[in-house]
Amino acid sequence: MDKDTVFAIGDIHGSINELETLLKQWNPDNERLVLLGDLVDRGENPYEVLIRAQQLEKEDGAVVILGNHEQMLLDWLEQPEFKQAYYYGQGGLETINSFFKFEITNKRGPNEVAQLMKEQFEAELQFIKSRPLYFEWQNYVFVHAGVDLNLEDWKETTDKEFYWIRDEFHYGKNETDKTFIFGHTPTSILHKTEGKFDIWYSPCKTKICIDGAAAYGGVLHGIKVNKDGIISTHSISSLTRSTKYEI
């Protein structure tokens, strides 16, 4: 029997403690858990978050959506030297080192590190590669970044835009019959107010952003919805020191 409520959680970025605290608000018996991607990079414990996500999928049927940072990790693995500067600077260092439990990037070059990751963490990387781009349920679509609203059918959105799109989705007219719950862009940017990490709603509330910049002094957001609308929202303040958030 399908569960009658979805509990969606925004970009975690290695914030394992905040995730575990937020999960206390989740009832696995009648709530489907959806993680909106960006499990890794930037925060302190990306590997632990990834392992927890695998467990939640296996044991509780959680839906774990692909985020752009998961894709960035996969892209770096294919071109480690070429993409080193970009990926390491986008939080990749934290992810790589959390896999190995020590600062391996200080001791080995990117090609060797990437090869070791492929050899030692095959199951984890396969999990990332198999992530869906979105989850459609009732009149909701849960997606990392958004969709192309200019298309006749939003499902024809390119793979990359599902996890990378920004302004054209945020400010585009939603003429679908769906409400989109997404992350990817910190809500402070959508609120146009630095430090304001509240959940963001579009004027008609058909687009809802729950990326609270958890790894950068913001909050980790969760939202519960059923077929009739929003049931509740839940926010866990970041336990990390606030720093400037760059997207």
From TrEMBL:
This is Calcineurin-like phosphoesterase domain-containing protein. Signal peptide: none annotated. It comes from the Bacteria. It holds the Pfam family Metallophos. Residues 6-188 form the Calcineurin-like phosphoesterase domain. CDD domains: MPP_PPP_family. InterPro entries: Ap4A_hydrolase, Calcineurin-like_PHP, Metallo-depent_PP-like.
